[in-house]
Automatic annotation (TrEMBL):
<keyword id="KW-0347">Helicase</keyword>
<dbReference type="InterPro" id="IPR027417">
    <property type="entry name" value="P-loop_NTPase"/>
</dbReference>
<dbReference type="InterPro" id="IPR038718">
    <property type="entry name" value="SNF2-like_sf"/>
</dbReference>
<dbReference type="InterPro" id="IPR050496">
    <property type="entry name" value="SNF2_RAD54_helicase_repair"/>
</dbReference>
<dbReference type="InterPro" id="IPR049730">
    <property type="entry name" value="SNF2/RAD54-like_C"/>
</dbReference>
<protein>
    <submittedName>
        <fullName>Fibrinogen silencer binding protein</fullName>
    </submittedName>
</protein>
<keyword id="KW-0067">ATP-binding</keyword>
<comment type="similarity">
    <text>Belongs to the SNF2/RAD54 helicase family.</text>
</comment>
<dbReference type="Pfam" id="PF00271">
    <property type="entry name" value="Helicase_C"/>
</dbReference>
<keyword id="KW-0547">Nucleotide-binding</keyword>
<keyword id="KW-0378">Hydrolase</keyword>
<dbReference type="InterPro" id="IPR000330">
    <property type="entry name" value="SNF2_N"/>
</dbReference>
<feature type="domain" description="Helicase C-terminal">
    <location>
        <begin position="629"/>
        <end position="790"/>
    </location>
</feature>
<dbReference type="Pfam" id="PF00176">
    <property type="entry name" value="SNF2-rel_dom"/>
</dbReference>
<dbReference type="InterPro" id="IPR001650">
    <property type="entry name" value="Helicase_C-like"/>
</dbReference>
<feature type="domain" description="Helicase ATP-binding">
    <location>
        <begin position="293"/>
        <end position="460"/>
    </location>
</feature>
<dbReference type="InterPro" id="IPR014001">
    <property type="entry name" value="Helicase_ATP-bd"/>
</dbReference>
Amino acid sequence: MDRGAWWATVHGVAKSRTGLSDFTFFLMELEGGKQKQQGRLILLNMRRSAAPSQLQGNPFKKPKFISPARSHPSPNEEVAKLNSDIKLFEVAANKNNFLQPQNDPRTCNFNLPTKECAKGINHGDNYREKYCLEASTKTTLDLHHTGTGYKLKELEKIEEGQTMMIGGKEIEVMGIISPDDFNSGRCFQFGGGCSAILSSSQAAKKCFSNPFKSVCKLSSKENKQNSFQSCKPRHDPYAPNSLVMLRPDKNHQWLFNKNCFPVVDVVIDPHLVYYLRPHQKEGITFLYECVMGMRVNGRCGAILADEMGLGKTLQCISLIWTLQCQGPYGGKPIVKKTLIVTPGSLVNNWKKEFQKWLGIERIKIFTVDQDHKVEEFTKSPFYSVLIISYEMLLRSLDQIKNVKFDLLICDEGHRLKNSTIKTTTALISLSCEKRIILTGTPVQNDLQEFFTLIDFVNPGILGSLSAYRKIYEEPIIISRQPSASEEERELGEQRAAELTCLTGLFILRRTQEVINQYLPPKIENVVFCRPGALQIALYRKLLNSQAVRFCLQGLLENTSHLICIGALKKLCNHPCLLFGSIKEKESNSTWDESEERNLYEGLMNVFPADYNPIMFTEEESGKLQVLSKLLAVIRELRPAEKVVLVSNYTRTLDILQEVCKRHGYAYTRLDGQTPISQRQQIVDGFNSKYSSDFIFLLSSKAGGVGLNLIGGSHLILYDIDWNPATDIQAMSRVWRDGQKHPVHIYRLLTTGTIEEKIYQRQISKQGLSGAVVDLSKTSDHIQFSVEELKNLFTLHESSHCVTHDLLDCECTGENHTGDSLEKLPVSRNCQLGPHQQKSDSLKPLSMSQLKQWRHFPGDHLNLTDPFLERIRENVSFFFQNITNQTTAI
Ligand SMILES: Nc1ncnc2c1ncn2[C@@H]1O[C@H](COP(=O)(O)OP(=O)(O)OP(=O)(O)O)[C@@H](O)[C@H]1O
Ligand SMILES: [Mg+2]
């Protein structure tokens, strides 16, 4: 419905913008909504609150109406009347979601004046206020709905200078408003004054306050009074493309507008709206409604769980900026101080994003680091946003508790999954009730962790932990057991559905698909690298060790298999890493009794006698050989492009760094040792087009989450983590907004080894049921059966690709050009409901989806990808998938 039609529906509006109260009521409701297209708009002047003596009219004014309405109706009657008004209003508003009317029926301002309200409005005899009244000439007045008590016929006769009684106030008709001003809505936006009837666009512009003027500074009485009197939206809610927040309903007003301020539209700064993607606009609206307590009665928490790179930061910045300058009640800002807690590497990224979107003047940001302590923030009224790392938060908790924060944002908040860990307890201890968790990784899987997150943002919403367990967790878990009866299954499903429904009100997740259209193509490759001869020999030896044999017989303690797994993983990265570990252990005094001794026994004999780990060669590791060739071909074919090289291990990064040095590649590095204060600088340096760095060495543990590394367009994941979320996080660093080049992602796996097994676990159903879908999970959390261990500790020497063997694929391994993955339903968006855990939707990629990727052996003749062509010699198999394919890559 267009704007004209909407006005036709709610014609007959009388409205006051007193600065202290902002009320609207409907004089009538149209039967068909179409009767009136043109009306008479009259500017009214409110003289004062009517004293009982005046209720019969002012004898000095003529002609006059005698109000048939009672001046002090009972609250119940008024609420009942209000409800019917609200219904009318809602009907009208619902017909047009975008155009939110300026005029809300208000409980306390109009129909139910409170003491404060009356006091605020009654400024004495000289106090005058202007009203706009649109009176239809064709419709009839529905007395039950108008709230005025006047009949339409009486209203039709209104002329300039007449007085009437509305809501216990004496009103004087001041003049006629032009249909243009009415249609544009301008007349409803003014704080008062004759400018309301000016229809020039200049006058219209003036009516919006300077968006960059700080409204928080209003301290003096005079300022306050002025601000109330000139209550108006900060930005034009009727401007094309304006993003207007939902107006609070009567319950909300009843709860949160005790002072009876006028309701003002909260409008997102057009400067920001210009850049926002559609999903971001939706996200900001969602966050606003959550923190304002509009979604769940009185609860002000939210979880924004958009996938990586969707701009959660910008959505929060828009929210902060809006709430810091605006509010629905009298325009008063909702938030004065905001606390943002984020991983160390992202502290300065947040600051940078604030500056990127809002410049340096609008909001004053304080970031905590070694040189900038929290005290500085607490002492200065200057700053409104504090950005701090989780680690620093713990250290400065006492000072932070002394500050009253109105909004708390926990970035990468999946780490708050356990209420007993220090960080979570610290954050819970902060009194701020508007809490937002941001996370790009799934937030469920474990029902208890799910509870912790939910209970953090909206404390108590699921009841106590013990009640939650009884009501939700137990029935849900029981219903999923194979032995569950039909009744138990049904109950579990119903509870799960209810839980999803309840929490879904304040959790929002969108998948990367929503920004695909803004991004360049992405070419993902899984590259199965043939192990080197030394690697195979060492691998065999390890598998034959006493430690592995004992593990398989279940003779060793629970954690022993982890040592074996660790050794195999090191070997896959490079034999010299294993060599280093053995040397280190040997020099340790406990070596003789350690389990490692059983594992490493005789291993040194497999290494050449003069083996020197410092002089390692590329040929000793299949993956390193591939990497080295890959870097060379990128350098050659795309000299202007850069590479992000990711590993989970610092020692592996040392080797990769050495490779860079040997080949003369300029590099930069970010790992756990990099001081927080330097991290953003390193990132910025790499992203700059003037940087000469070719390679960014990244530790996924230190910098896998949140970083923007769009300077690189090739990302190589050198090793694999048990947790797919870790890998996905790392891979999402380059394919993000701002990326100019097609993105190439290479995931290197050593053929036939444990790396393939981990990959299979990541993408198989087994991985799904194992608790490895969130970042806090490591292999320590995984329980392996003896069967699983047997599988893990097997080397498949003759297969090109065990993963392909398992796919049950009909192809002979000869360039299977599977359907594009995009054709398959990728239903990753449903991460929220515990009952959805059963579906594939939690996984980034499933076995069946992988099967749809293009795949072929390394020796395939027609490799069209020049990068793969160059490395094929050391590769046994490829999987490839292209997203957003345009023309040539
Ligand atoms: N509307 C937009 N237009 C252009 N760039 C944008 C827009 N929104 C976000 N960006 C940019 O996209 C990049 C990714 O955004 P951001 O870091 O907020 O993602 P995120 O959702 O927090 O991802 P992650 O989960 O990885 O932390 C940033 O460089 C940001 O400035
Ligand atoms: Mg982020």
